[in-house]
């Protein structure tokens, strides 16, 4: 997080609190979220994208407290399930500021969203449109909808997190014609209030080219829709995906730069197609909560493994792993690390930081230089862990999920408590 320093004793201090104190109070592993950092990144999106609606993507990290921060910073919230809706609402986010996503929303979820008055539903298939219409008819509701489209953009990111190419589960294809058909279908529905188009091209993206193509193709679609119906669409949502720096080689664009580029692209395409400027929105998740968070682990064993050619590698085992951060195993995601409890002037050696799971692929950081005197009991801080770590955590090997702790002005408060073995045992109702 911003403003992170080492104090005179060499301890890393986040939001005015030494991580050693966090470890003492809350144990390890723990995720620490710097509240001021989260808020300032949220505010940066709000201010840079003036006049746009910013939907914080709750899938990246969502607790009631986080929903409240997003609300207080003037953001809306992107939710994808009943669980995310429930937490967002419980955190005080008004239903009309929710955007409800998903490629397989259940009847129960749809009915809940309609009853609560969720602001917009992003429809993802013809089946869903029919399901939504039935629910509206039964409950006497009208749903404001955006149609999620596939723009055919090949986003430059990991295959599993690129979502605009044709052969994947999300959206309706512009190229194949289903997107226009769906828009016309929603427009002509008595139960639906068509707001516009939604495009999300992928995640952890560092350049604006893919967005540029997506803007051109969605605006062309809007123009085709106007030709078909005589009506201009009111809204365009460009999704999320703004990358953050996990390691030195990552160079994200500044939020203001992205905003300026998007403004220019939209203006250009509006002029080109003779369309008036739609209301615009984006859905950043990682870029708001990722850098605000750090994961804290305790070193349990240090093992030197001899390699061929007289080389060796230091395996540093920590008390978490692929259950609290699946991203390295799933996407070959890279992270950095630092010893959090002390300075060291020992020479840096190549280490591999691994977890405690029964699996060879349980690697948190494949290659990282750490001081050669790294030892049992040291604390390791992994920056960038605010996004998609706790939210994708699991109980592999029956390990309870770590807590999420908010840090502000030298004080921590638990927003999500540590899961206990009792929590886990309670679910096992067999005899
Ligand atoms: N909007 C939609 C429709 C999305 O599907 C996503 C991410 C976002 C916004 C937010 O994207 P962000 O700004 O956070 O990149 N779990 C993966 C990434 C997949 C995210 C899926 N959707 C990861 O750990 O990198």
From TrEMBL:
Modification type N6-(pyridoxal phosphate)lysine: residues: 59
Pathway(s) where this gene product acts: Amino-acid biosynthesis; L-lysine biosynthesis via DAP pathway; L-lysine from DL-2,6-diaminopimelate: step 1/1
InterPro entries associated with the record: Ala_racemase/Decarboxylase_C (IPR009006), DAP_deCOOHase_LysA (IPR002986), De-COase2_CS (IPR022657), De-COase2_N (IPR022644), De-COase2_pyr-phos_BS (IPR022653), Orn/DAP/Arg_de-COase (IPR000183), PLP-binding_barrel (IPR029066)
E.C. no: 4.1.1.20
Domain Orn/DAP/Arg decarboxylase 2 N-terminal: 36-289
Reactions catalysed: meso-2,6-diaminopimelate + H(+) = L-lysine + CO2
GO molecular function, one term: pyridoxal phosphate binding
Coiled-coil ranges from the UniProt annotation: none
Superkingdom assignment: Bacteria
Family annotation (Pfam families): Orn_Arg_deC_N
Cofactor(s) demanded: pyridoxal 5'-phosphate
Catalytic residues, chain numbering: 358
One biological process term in Gene Ontology: lysine biosynthetic process via diaminopimelate
Alphabetical keyword list: Amino-acid biosynthesis, Decarboxylase, Lyase, Lysine biosynthesis, Pyridoxal phosphate
SUPFAM superfamilies recorded: Alanine racemase C-terminal domain-like, PLP-binding barrel
Residues reported in the UniProt entry to bind pyridoxal 5'-phosphate: 241, 283-286, 388
Gene3D superfamilies per record: Alanine racemase (3.20.20.10), Lyase, Ornithine Decarboxylase, Chain A, domain 1 (2.40.37.10)
Residues that, per the record, bind substrate: 286, 327, 331, 359, 388
Primary role: Specifically catalyzes the decarboxylation of meso-diaminopimelate (meso-DAP) to L-lysine.
PANTHER family linked: DIAMINOPIMELATE DECARBOXYLASE, GROUP IV DECARBOXYLASE
Membership in a protein family: Belongs to the Orn/Lys/Arg decarboxylase class-II family. LysA subfamily.
Subunit-structure text: Homodimer.
Protein name: Diaminopimelate decarboxylase
Organism (species): Tessaracoccus flavus
Gene of this entry: lysA
